[in-house]
Design brief:
Elements: H1 2-5, H2 10-26, H3 31-44, H4 49-61, H5 65-79, H6 85-94, H7 98-105, H8 115-131, H9 135-142, H10 145-148, H11 156-169, H12 173-186, H13 194-202, H14 212-218, H15 231-242, H16 262-267
Helix pairs in contact: 2-3, 2-4, 3-4, 4-5, 5-6, 6-7, 6-8, 7-8, 8-9, 9-11, 11-12, 12-13
């Protein structure tokens, strides 16, 4: 990317670079803001392949699949690299055209991809199969040496997770649970929610301790009107008891009345 920016005047190159840095920084946490920065970079240097690619990923992250596909195609024409082929196919899925994604999975460009790119293409193809109502075909699509490998690669967790999802869709729950566990084992960067899916299958429910609603639900009033586990309620009850004069009526006796011992009454 730096090499591509060197083709621009220095001041312009610096402005474009700043915007691209912000795109990369915000893409995951604030995709809408990243998209805004990408449009600025695109306006400044639309003839730079790296800028078109960054704009494509920002559009993709905000589900603007038509824009993303146009930017990826432009970047691919400029650079000649096949690396964007899988994400281009996924844009076709996003546009509701899984058949086109499947057609792209069979194109010669796939053979030019490295191993990671081919795994990515397989994930997209499996997703397209599921979109087309072919869950059994999705299971078969994901099977291969990469899935069977015990080595952990950057794409391993996502591949295992996708396979578990496909198995679950065809009713193979026990196998799905096994592969969710394998995905969790490989998910060193937290890229999937395999732990949550395992909990769902095991019938485990989690309560957020920081959720005010959950905390309020846990505070159930007791018979005295204080809240279980509420120190203030207990102290208030104690203070009320201490301030009650001797002989104060209890159990609903009216205020100001006096309880008289029957024997004393008889003496009188």
């Amino acid at each position: 990317m730096r090499q591509e920016l060197l083709s621009l005047p220095k001041t312009l190159a610096e402005d474009v670079a700043r915007n691209l840095v912000m795109v990369a920084k915000l893409l995951d946490e604030d995709p809408e803001q990243a998209y805004a920065y990408s449009r600025v970079a695109l306006r400044l240097a639309s003839r730079v392949a790296a800028v078109r690619e960054a704009a494509g990923f920002a559009s993709y992250a905000t589900a603007k699949y038509s824009e993303a596909l146009a930017e990826f195609r432009a970047a691919r024409r400029m650079s000649g690299s096949p690396d964007l082929w899988p994400v281009m196919a996924d844009c076709e899925r996003g546009l509701g055209r899984p058949e086109r994604a499947m057609a792209m999975a069979g194109e010669p460009e796939v053979q030019k991809l490295d191993r990671a790119g081919q795994v990515e293409m397989r994930l997209v193809a499996a997703g397209a199969r599921r979109d087309m109502g072919q869950p059994d075909a999705a299971v078969v699509t994901l099977q291969g040496p990469e899935l069977a490998s015990t080595s952990i690669q950057p794409w391993t967790a996502r591949l295992r997770y996708a396979y578990a999802e496909a198995l679950l869709e065809v009713g193979r729950e026990e196998e799905a649970r096994e592969w969710f566990a394998k995905a969790l084992e490989a998910d060193q960067g937290g890229t999937t929610n395999a732990s949550d899916r395992l909990a769902e299958l095991d019938g485990v429910e989690f309560t957020d301790a920081l959720d005010p609603g959950a905390e309020a639900a846990d505070e159930v009033p007791d018979e005295a009107g204080t809240e279980t586990g509420d120190g203030e309620g207990i102290e208030a009850a104690k203070a009320e008891a201490e301030n009650t004069p001797e002989g104060q009526p209890e159990n609903g006796a009216e205020a100001g009345s006096v309880t008289v011992d029957p024997e004393e009454r008889d003496k009188d």
